Amino acid sequence: MDVQLTAAHWVYLAGILVILATMALRKNIVVPAVVATFLTALTFSGSIVTGLSAIFNASLVAAKELFNIFLIIAMVTAMLGALRQLGADRMMVAPFRRVMRAGTSSFLVLAAVTYVISLFFWPTPAVPLVGAVLIPVAIRAGMSPLSVGMVIAICGQGMALSSDYIIKVAPGISASAAGVEADAVADKAMVLSLIVGGTALLITYLVQKRHWRAPSPDLLVEWEAAADRGIGDTADRGIGDTADRGIGDTADRGIGETRDDSSGDGGGSRPPRRPEPAGGPSGGGEQAATATAVLVAPSDPIADPDSAAEKERRGTAKAFAMLVPLAYLAFIVYLMLGKFTEVVPPLQGGDAAAIVGGIAALILFAAAASTDRGGFLETTSDHLVDGLVFAFKAMGCVLPIAGFFFIGNPEFAGPILGISADAAGPAILFDLVTTVQSHLPQNAFITSFGILLIGLVAGLDGSGFSGLPLTGALSGALGPAVDVDPSTLAAIGQMGNIWAGGGVIIAWSSLVAVAGFARVPVLDLARKCFLPVMAGLILSTVFAVLVF
Question: pTM, whole model, 2 decimals?
Fold first, then answer.
């Protein structure tokens, strides 16, 4: 079916090209996204009022769609803040050090755990679980925060979700649109996802390894201090470069060296203290520096390690260090029982993520009460506020960017453009993709890479599965004409759509959750993932044409 492109389509396309060019220049894309939103809405409606209101509505719609990610980041961050105040954070990760002793072993463990959990339960619950338990261990073992985020994104949102081999939602959508068996698409998608993921992981390892450092407890302190200063403050200064070095400028100054960590694995000798604020638009760095200075001031009282109060505090910290992994392990067991048995009802991705947040909230309350029995209500509130501030400060710039790409999705375009709920919104992005496919030459390689490109472009809205009906339908129509199995083309299109929109190379997607837990700017994480993933996608597409 021929699609008639309007002026709004061309303005939207120009906005995409400007945003991609701005990203290539390593500049912030919030302003181009907002301007493109205004111009697209203005051109579509012919009303300046609609154009102005679309700026607000686009961010509002994006906030509604992404707030669950923001909230779970805030809750888990608040929980970790309470554990850090208690001294349980380091004790909790101590057992994992036996395996994750250096950067390479941490890289492998992170990759394996993230992939397995994401394959069975989707990345939604996997990222908070890994973020709460394993990321601090990997940081202590010497991995840079940026490489940690890349591994989790590649293995979870990329390799596991793009095949969706266990749950089979993605292969089912692709196969239904292509008119083939779901198992045929799933089997090929599994192989292609391993090729893409393996290639991306290998490149990530080779490129990022030089930025890793010798294992040290001080690295964890520096990582936490960098988060207290606020990711948002450094994003515009090109934190992609500083993230490669590990924590940023503080890595060279050795903040961690100013703290007493004679307890080794638990921070048991550290006196309890109230958490420093995550830092607002200004002053976060001064607060963190002041707090560090206070900790090492000669006049500070040093807790007697043999006192009854200190022994009780260490015992409480050890109890929470065991409670947190056991609580999340029990949750994983519950998920598996729901998946493979009828003992408990199965949980969907959103429900699983909600439970992760609920567990974090209860642990937060208990840890705060154990640390500050008299004022734990205020302490708990402080931790929650710090978590929310961190989540929005680190990820808030994603909202106007996501809002622009949501205009291209008919599901979200209506509320953004002020169209009534009864009327369908324009499918601007899908119209552009459909127009492109009509000009593809009849050649197996060109058609396969064309389907891959269409999948990538369709994933620009950051919703993951939204482009699968389109790539599946095109695969069914174009496959026989170029003598390629439609299931192969459908699997290729599925790779492009999910590796882009599922949360690996598109910053305005669930990649914000990975960046939030790794505490790195999401735009830098997306840029670093781009070349390894694209290399894997190209290799997998060539393999699919030659072998399948």
Answer: 0.67
User: Which amino acid is residue 454, in one-letter code?
Assistant: I
- The candidate with the shortest Cα–Cα distance to 83, out of 313, 375, 400, 329, is 313
Handedness of CA 514, 516, 517, 523 (dihedral sign): positive
Q: How far is CA 512 from the centre of its chain?
A: 4
Instruction: List CB contacts of 351: < 8 A, sequence separation 6 or more.
Output: none
Under a CB-based contact definition with an 8 Å cutoff, are residues 484 and 447 in contact?
Answer: yes
Does residue 73 contact residue 353 with C-beta atoms inside 8 Å? no
Q: Find the largest Cα–Cα distance for the chain.
A: 81
Q: pLDDT of 262-306, one tens digit each?
A: 333 333 333 344 333 333 333 333 333 333 333 333 334 445 555
Mapping DSSP onto H, E and C, the string for 212-241 reads CCCCCHHHHHHHHHHHHHCHHHHHCCCHHH
58 near 284, Cβ under 8 Å? no
Report the C-alpha gap between 101 and 115 in whole angstroms.
20
Q: Can you tell me which residue has the tokens 């203290």?
A: 273
Give the Cα separation of 352 and 120 in Å (integer): 12
List C-alpha distances in Å: 198 to 145, 360, 531, 546. Answer: 20, 32, 13, 19
Rounded Cα gap, residues 467 and 457, in angstroms: 9
